[in-house]
Design goal:
Length: about 900
Amino acid sequence: MDALPSPPGLTRTTCPYCGVGCGVLAAPDGRVAGDPDHPANRGRLCSKGTALGETLDLPGRLLHPEVRGKRASWDAALDAVAEGFRRAQAELGRDGVALYVSGQLLTEDYYAANKLAKGFLGTGNIDSNSRLCMASAVAAHRRAFGEDVVPGIYEDLEAADLIVLVGSNLAWCHPVLFQRIAAARAQRPSTRLVIVDPRRTSSAEGADLHLAIRPGSDVALFNALLAHLDAGGFRDPAFVEAHTEGLDATLAAARADAADATARTGLDPADLATFLNWFASTPRVVTLWSQGINQSETGTDGANAIINAHLLTGRIGKAGAGPFSITGQPNAMGGREVGALANILAGHLDWSVPGEADLVRTHWNAPNLAAGPGLKAVDLFRAVSAGWIGALWVMATNPAVSMPDGEAVRNALARARFLVVSDCMATTDTMPHAHVRLPALGWAEKSGTVTNSERVISRQRGFMRPAGEARPDWWIIAEVAARLGWGADFAWNGPAAIFREHAALTGLGNGGQRAFDISGLAGMTDAEYDAMVPTRWPVPAAGAAPARFFGNGAFPAGRARLVPVSHRARAEDDGRLTLLTGRLRDQWHTMTRTGGVPRLMAHAPEPVLAVHPADARGIEDGALARIAGHEGASAVLRLRHDAGQRRGTVFAPMHWTAQAAPAARVNGTVPPAFDPVSGQPALKSARVALSAFTPAWHGFLVARRDLGPGIADWAAVALAGENVWRHELAGAEAPAEAFARIAALLPVEGAEWARLEDPAAGLYRGVLLRGGRAEAALFLGAQHRLPPRDWLAGLLASGGSAPVGALLAGRPADGPPPSPTLCVCHGVSQEAVRGAIRGGACSLAAVGEATRAGTGCGSCRPEIAALLAAVEPVPV
Ligand code: SF4
């Protein structure tokens, strides 16, 4: 448990982004490196992690408490929160209040929030944005094992002979884990990789098999697998007999689906057979899944279908074998551990198990403990809208963007009688609705713990002073609790005290019945907590921790349950397309942090809708397109033809906000449907109508000012360099008027416009010059095809100059035309990589040697691999 000494000037902490949970060495001067001693990443970082040093000075921080739009003292703000919650409960009862929290919170913050809600406010109405991420995996674990336990560890992925990624673009969403797999396969090329995903994502580059499955047919696929395994004699009879139940009913359901599996999944029969045979013949197989499974109306069934296959074959709890749910958020697992979801208690305790609520009640000295589960996310915001929730506290999350049925959620927030938002950022889409705004610490300032996807608890350590008057979330919660009369129960002097209380609870009444037991950490001193090294649970106070979960059975429920699940067909005959929402390689959630780093914006600087060319309704690649979904709600994005998109589907990232691209918020088009078991919203199954968006003009503005997205009917704004913003624009007015109006928004003192106009062709271009250097470039045209923006943006960022003719052409007078950035670490463009391949670079290593692309964090290597497969070398 002793800490490794930190290198001079650097602090050992943990990345705040995804559930891989990489260790980071960081310093206030912006130095950031992967922690070579952290078991999750062993020194690696992805593009987001390597850019953490560029996010330390985030503009847009919330620096002071505010009450009803006015700066307030902490005392006044906390009094207002306490009074708002007291009043709401007096009027509406215990359940007249709610908390909506986040996988961004540290475990200690999460624990405090849950204790306040369930223990003292006495309501189950606390849910987390993790509901949107992995609630279906939680429900599946509980159904199968009797407890929410992830049996796998990352080393299993390196020990496996077959890795199946289901609904997971690991290369983009958990890049370091994907790099670990790539490195292991390079060492042992016989390791097979199978991708199950309607899209041909970056993860599919270099895979042995890509199953472009029909969305929503995962249950049919894994039922076909189960039936095949059983029929082929691949059942582990001793394991099944000794450790499971429910076999007959589960097999009956599987066989019913298997008969028609190719039609249900839409897969090529030969590909399906290959997958079934590979799985059957490979003892060491890991099936890893993520949001592609979870974010569905059948998400829990899909996860159980995967687990069923592993239970039948006894491929669980062994090196290189097991079902493996991977979480999106950095501390989704911590939230599960402290019970910050509406339907679970702290410490993996459960209302439905006699005596367990009493354990919590006693531990917390909380006689008013909530009587049962509360409202899950979708229902919670409905209740706010209906006026049943009189006080809502949103912590460290941005539901105005991330929830489905976005317009209804924004209306609910606007209608909320009393809304508190605590966040480190002042500029989220949720924040304007808040009656009380509370500044929370940012990543570099916080101290506590997080748990990653392989159950490793890591310390997050602050290494910078709090910005403004920002305070820890746990402190804010404790201060509100004190004002409500419960000060003695929240009288922690720091996160270590909260962690001890949390750890002690996990051991209460736990004679090995509950897998989650970290009571062995409950006696840590503050100094030991400060020095804590990454530690995988369980850590029981008494007895030895199992080296692995479930290899020898020993399921929390006694026997594991094979859960009978059946394919449920989706209606797909309405002429519309299925919208798959997801993430981009270099962005995190609603871009409040990653959106402030120009090199992270370079890879995908505007919202894009990927569609198979045959589904494009005649809309050209690069034109704007509208998708219309739930109750007519629509979004407009740049359309990209992508032959890797399954017919009948479109893909769009969920990152864009009102701050950057208000018309491109795709979650507004998604109905509030959810999995009936887990309550997880079905964010990947909206049906949308695709049509052309035909404005009078298209354009872009590159400028040294952020003019915001309000300057045109459609706009997307992105940071393109230090103090340089790129505005993608389109509008309905006459282009000449639009040009004059937008140009007038820019400062002209000491500057003048150089222009190129051809009204007959609808072409208006101008460059604002001051002292021979470009201050801004505004290009408008009747067509969407306009010069690339990268060169102009780079020129403004560098303060360089160029001939006016080149500026108005949008490309250098000599040299190659600009092309989009592929490798953000070294700023290498797609065209440079193509050039290297044409010149004879025929491997990742050769491309790296020629261009440096792929030699940094490695997140771009799958895209380089795709170019290697697509671009022909030029014969010499
Ligand atoms: Fe952070 Fe990237 Fe590691 Fe995820 S994979 S924890 S985003 S460095």
